[in-house]
């Protein structure tokens, strides 16, 4: 009886691991790249937008995006950068506008600080 | 009701498959290769704790944006970071030494899982792999040799065959899904890998060579990863696969930017060390090794 219980426990653990190893990554293959927990290493690359902050006195400074990340992974979800303008506004009260250019030569978006 | 030839063949195959699964679930294997794997993975986890300290310290700065991966997970304050890293590093050392191996392994996996889920910036695939491998080594009884537990006779002297088989499937799954995820138009165009590659390296190449080089690396990586996922299971191709795998990981460390090199080196050590599980004979019907 004890042997059967041990075998059942091992079988359950094996099924659990196989789910993590195969079922989850297979499911994630049908979603957007890159997905976490899907072994999608280097399958996508996210380019960080360019940011310029404008202060109340009219001065402007180019932002080094890496100063605001603990570790900027190359495959960060692009949606992460939607939060950066608000973060820059909150950090420095003198900032009145954050300008954002998603791609080089692309349109420049102005985010007014509230 | 009479059985057709196909029915008999199917029944035999099912019976044979059930027997193979039962052998894997019951069987034991030599614990020494698993112990070597435990030592390398434990040491790698220790080094990764030091890398994590740097990332967590930067994450705690007020200027750093927070990107919680699991909203309900309690966030760690700056004062808690050294304690978490100390717990992680201590558990990694005990795991490496094979001292209270199971407990140390579970604590180590828990500490790494917390960091994995803490923030988008603390997630990494090689850390996720470390968590799974440590847990599988706990299940495999990797403390059964070459450690304090084994010397004191606190553990059984053999390793569990089913966990060794799961470590094999982990290696194959990692390579196979890494390759399948790259089968998209952007990656196949070379743009994705060019974005990751060290800029100095590409500039050093003649302009006419850059695109062919990036395309060869992109397509070659997919072919190698798919090949490794399969070839490591074959006794005939295993040694070639090991050489190809080492070349793949060394190439990744050399070609990709210096900022990612430490993490890529950790991933390389994890994967290459895991190849040892393909050389561990699993129990077979006749008592001989399964190949």
Q: Could you walk me through the main structural features you see in this protein, from its secondary elements to its overall organization?
A:
- The complex is a heterodimer of chains A (114) and B (291).
- Helices cover 32% and strands 18% of the residues of chain A.
- Chain A has helices spanning 2-29, 84-91; strands at 50-55, 60-62, 95-101, 108-112.
- Chain A is elongated and about 80 Å long.
- Chain A is built from 2 helices and 4 strands, in the order αββαββ.
- Chain B is mainly alpha-helical and 291 residues long.
- Chain B has 2 domains: 30-159, no CATH class; 161-282, no CATH class.
- Chain B contains 13 helices and 4 strands.
- In chain B, the strands form 2 sheets. Chain B has a two-stranded antiparallel sheet with strand order 1-2. In chain B, strands 3-4 form a two-stranded antiparallel ribbon.
- The radius of gyration of chain B is 22 Å and the shape is globular.
- The chains are: A alpha+beta (114), B mainly alpha (291).
- Chains A and B meet through helix 1 and helix 2 of A and helix 1, helix 2, helix 5, helix 7 and helix 9 of B.
- Return residue spans of chain A where pLDDT drops below 50 for at least 5 consecutive residues: none
Shape of chain B: globular
Tally of DSSP β-strands of chain B: 4
Mean pLDDT of chain B: 91
Tell me the helix content of chain B.
Answer: 55-70%
Biggest beta sheet attributes of chain A: 4 strands, antiparallel
Number of helices of chain A: 2
- Rg of chain B is 22 Å
Please indicate the count of domains of chain B: 2
Structural class of chain B: mainly alpha
Radius of gyration of chain A: 23 Å
**Silhouette of chain A:** elongated
Low-confidence stretches of chain B: 287-291
Question: For this entry, what is the oligomeric state of its chains?
Answer: heterodimer
In whole angstroms, the N-to-C terminal distance of chain B is 38 Å
Query: In terms of structural class, how would the helical and strand content of chain A be classed?
Result: alpha+beta
Summarize the biggest pleated sheet of chain B: 2 strands, antiparallel
